[in-house]
Amino acid sequence: MADVDKIEVVVAHHERATLRAGDVFLKIDVDRANTDVEVAAMALAPIPTPEVLWRKPPVLAIAALPGTALGRLGEPSTASPAAWAAAGAAVRTLHDAPLPPWPGRSVDEITARLDSECEWLVTHDVLPTELVRRNRRIAETALRPWTPVFTHGDLQISHVFVDGDEITGVIDWSEAAPGDALYDLATLTLGHEERLGDVLAGYGTDVDLDVIRAWWSLRSLLGVRWLVEHGFDPSAPGCEVDVLSRSRR
Question: Which residues form the Aminoglycoside phosphotransferase domain (predicted)?
């Protein structure tokens, strides 16, 4: 690693932290299972991922990817339509790969967590009751049987890196597992509905848009409590609460 003159704190809370030192990221996670999955998933994924430099639990050192993030939730993306389409094509390549050999979440598990989170949001007066109920009804569309594929599981736009119109890599694989293909597509376009057409052009197959919208509502409902409890603001413009407020029946 080259000499560095500062350490950047990328994210930090009581469960995990990520630090950047020059061209190296140091990920520290109290749950070793998360980094076990991350390392295994990156080794299996048929798309570009960061190089693992070394690992000494609870620390994982990975090389920085070239390029910049596709975008950030709550901010306009300056990436080109071709870059978004390239992201869609990369997701399709991942989904076409053999399944990872560990289990994913079942519909019943997701439903139970969703109901618990909705109850918490209403009980603690975090969101208006009608907003929660409306989005819970929308989310129901996603809670159906699916054919599992190799999913990233947390495919936020900030986890996809591009250089011009080319994908240079995808980071943060700790939630990778067999799952619903449309969940990855929904996560990638959360808060950026206007980019969905570009992503699907690259993905190359028809999808059920109602299910995509259902996953937008479901992911946002699941995320609000965690964000609040970890010091983030889900009500910032363009973020989860905005997504819930703009949802359509």
Answer: 44-205
